[in-house]
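Dear support,

I submitted the protein below through the web form. The confirmation email said the job was done, but the results page showed an empty box. After a refresh the structure appeared. I'm attaching both so you can tell me whether what I see now is the final result or a partial one.
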Amino acid sequence: MNVPLHTPQVELLEVSDSDFDWMLGFVQDHKGLRLPPGGVDDPVVLRIVRDMTNKLHAAECAGSWMIVRDGEVVGLCSYKRPPSDGRVEIGYGTAPQRRGVGVATAAVAVIAHIASADAAIEALTAETSVDNLASHRVLEKNDFVRTGHRIDEEDGEVIGWIKKLR
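What the results page shows now:
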């Protein structure tokens, strides 16, 4: 599949296990990339995303990327698990110091473009905390619509979202 993995704002680079070693501080000077001050995210979150990525790769699903802007890894985005029943749930996050400039919005647009080229994916889904207004805007700007609310054991009340691709 030859789908562009970039917009003028961001580039998505498929993330590997060695990329996580670098983001966690186990490796220095990695692929000519930089990290923002304070890193991409909390080490606990990086380990969770690393585990998700390893499960995707074990299922032969490419669906986990670093969000890169001007040579700096400013966030991560991925499918949360391999596509099933024509749907795939996405997740994304931006380094705290790099929020509010459209990086997540651009990354989700690229994910939607990638998914639209995959005949097995008919829709993208996502969940956001009811209090995460910035994430609501990211999804709204990418034509996701709300599907309802539910209570998550870890996150409390969340809003469900969907973007139909076909």
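Response: this is the final, complete result; the empty box was a page-load delay. The longest strand covers residues 156-164.
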